[in-house]
Amino acid sequence: xxxxxxxxxxxxxxxxxxxxxxxxxxxxxxxxxxxxxxxxxxxxxxxxxxxxxxxxxxxxxxxxx
Length: 65
Hints:
The chain is mainly α.
């Protein structure tokens, strides 16, 4: 089972600003990625996985709208 990028952040109990800081990106980038998770490259997928303390294969990174 996979959950959305936004759901993963909420489950990690992080705000947009907190999550963006942990990942090392701007909040606007994270907002964009939460709307279209297919834009996240593999390097940042790993960083998100670590920041959210969730296995990478549990987060959906396939929406390329």
